[in-house]
Every structure is written in structure tokens, then in C-alpha cells.
Structure prediction request, 493 residues.
Amino acid sequence: MCIRDRKTFFVLVLLALIFYASEVDAQVADISQEKDAPIAPPTCPRLHYFDQELKQCKHKPVFPLSTEEIIGSLIIVIISGLANAGGIGGGVLISVTLIILFEYKTSVAVIISYICMFGGSIGNLIMTGFTKDPKTERLLVNYDLARLCLPLMIMGTLFGVIVNRVLPEFLIAVILDVLLIIMLRKLRDRALQLYRKETQAAAAAGEPIRASLNLDSTVMSINPANDFSHVGEVEALIKEDQDIFPWKKLSLLLYLLLSLLVFNLAKGSRKFPSTLDIEFCSSLFWLLSSLEFALCVIVFLVSFQEVLQLYNLKERLSYPFDDEFRLNPNMIKKIGIFAVLSGILAGATGIGGGMILNIPLLEYGLKPQTATSTSSLTVVFTSSISMGVAVLNGYLEIDQVIWFMILSLIGSFVVSSIINYFVFKYKRPSLVLMVLLGVLLLSLITLSGLAVSELIRDAMSYLKFRSCLLYTSDAADDLLCVDLGGRRIIKKK
Prediction:
């Protein structure tokens, strides 16, 4: 190659390098400009906004309310009122409303449903639980029954949660639907039976007459032989049953509530982190769960002993019971079995244990209003634990807590007042069972629809078995890794 050709070649190469360098500089400048430019907010879902600081979409504050949220608020008022009038929390229906109309994520909707169940049960307890039966002047709430059932239900829930973590979601949905169908049939039969009795009683009396029974006449009718040797003791027992706040009976339940709240904050759960950084499903997690179980056993044994002694004393003194329900040893055994089973089913399926326990209580002769009022008391305790953990972990804003608490309180006050008015006016306790029947039927339809939609959306995930090993971490709980003997095995996605 001649010198001239070489010069031409080098000039062309130099020009090519200059052109390439200029293109690279332009691309670097574009990249730097892109980095310096603000991130364009993505399209957020309805009722959400983009948080520039967190760089993610967040749900809007409660206020101002949109049209959908106003409609949803009214629905929550109605659901909460009807559900609590029947002695159940209504968490399933409230959660669905929060997901569809308020556009909350499922996890947030469940937490808010705890707030609604707590507020609704408080309102219903004030309206009915602290109301006295006009016939006997005794409270509608059976505190002895509550302190027997509550620790057993919590014990069952501890097992039920494990079952929930292992069984496929579809199988859990099938179990829940079958359970609701059985409950509906039994409740329908009980409601019709009670309605017929009320109709016959009204026909025999000509028209419903308000009965009034004061303390003196109750004591006078205890013994036909007019033996007044135990009148003072019986009078003391009746006054105790008429006490709105029997602190001796409530103190043990309050101690259990506070202890369980501390345990749940310490050990955490799959949804809430532990305050002590304890891994979910780890050895320490199960140790604390075992201590919870042991505490419930102790509370039950103490309550069992006290209730049994009280029953024997009432029997010895010919105490005037106001219904056919008796907390004798045989009844305590039956109720105890159902309380544990209701806790297991509640933990496994996610519905309230009070909903399940109401049916056998009614079958064994407990009055409908007493059954629903006592269930409301158990809902107060169980929902307050979940609500307390959620609020203390900062999962809810204060405006959310206040607003949804107010909605559920209004619902329970208004609806419970209306239902109780008609119950006492027309002597129709079966109205409570009919309301409960309607709520259960609506829950069955809703849950069945959700199960079908989940099956269509992701059949494989919905049908597979899951695991919760004794040595796992949060990542293992999400099926990303498993801890075995100190070695962590990461699974490929």
C-alpha cells in the first residue's frame, strides 16, 4: 500500500473513531439526564395515589370519601349490625366489602375487619349483653359459659392455624362450605321449632303479656315448704347473676387477654413481625405458642373448678334457673368439646369461633339472646387480640381505626336496638335466629363465589398442599427457602 493510501486509510479510521465517540457521549448524556429526571409516577389502582418518597402506590386516606366508599360504609353498617345481632363478627362479609368497594389489599382488609368486629361486638354487648331479661332481671350474658369456652376456643385456634398452613386452600374452602351448610340446616330447624313454640304460647295466652319477676318473689318460690334457711345465700347468688360487671369472673378473662396480647406481640405471625425478631414457625415461635396453650389450659381448669362449685351450690340451694340450660359436669364436657372444635375450625377456615359454637349452644337449650350475647363477649376478646397486634405494629392509620370503629358501633347499636325491640315486644326470640340464618346464608354464597374465582385464577396454587416446619424462616414460609439443621437451602424460583 502506498503512503497516500495509508494516509487516507488512517484519516478514515480517525473520523470513524471521532464519530463513535460522539455517539457514546450522546448516549451517556441521555442516560445521565434520565437519571437526573424525576421518575414518572406509574398508573396506580383506583383509590390509590403514588407516594414520591416511597416510590410506590398507596391507598388514599379515609377522607374525603369517594362514592364507592360511601356505599361501602353503609354496607358495613348493615353487615356489622346484622352479624352482631346474631352473635357473630361478620368478618368474612366485611372483608369482601373492603376488598371490592374500598380497593384494600386482602391483608389490609382482614386487619380492618378485626376493627369492625371489635367495635360491633362492643356495641352489641352494650345493647344486649348488659341488658337484663325482663322476666328474671338477670343479665343476658352467661359469664360462666364465656370463661369456660374462651380458653378452649383459643387452644383450638392454635391447632387450627397449623391446619390452615398445611391444607390446600381449596380443601379449606370446601370444609368451610360444608360446615356452613350443616350449621344452616341445624339453625333452620332450631328457628322453626322455637317459632312454633312462641306461636303456641301466644295462642294459649291470648296475647303476649310482659312477665315481671322481682327478687322477693323469686326467692319465695324456691321452696314450696317455705324453708327460708338458705334464702340469704340464694339471694346473694341471684344478685351476682344480676351484676353487670362481675369482676370476679371477668378478671381471669382480662388476665388471659393481656397475656395473649403480649405473647402474640413477642412471637409475631406470618402477617405481623415479632417485636423480639423471632422468626415465624421457628423453635422459639413454637415454644411461645406452647406457653400460650399451657396458659389457656390453666385458665380453663381454674374456671372449670369455680363453675362446677357454683353449679353444685345452686343445685343444693334449689336455685331458680331461668331456662333448661345447665352447666353441670356432663354439659361442660359437651360444650368443652365443641369449643375446642370451633377453635380448630375457626383457625383453619378463618371464620369466627362464635359462629360455630352458637349452634350447639342453641341445641342444648340456651336462649337465643343469651347465646348471641355470650358469643359477642367472646368476639370482643378474640378480635381485640388481633386488633391490638395490628395497631401496635402500625399497620393501620388512626383515621382508619376511628372511622371503621364508628361504622361498626353505629351498625350494632341501631340494628340491635331494632331487633331487640321486636323480640321483647312480640316475645319472638326466634327473630335473632332468623337474622343469624340470613347472615350465614350470605356468608356461604360469598365464600363459595370467592373459592370458585380463586380456583379459576390460579388452580395449581389453590390445590397444592403447603408446609410449616419447626425450623423455618419468613422466606421459608413463602416457600423460598428451608432451614434444615442450621443449613439454609435456597430454592430456585
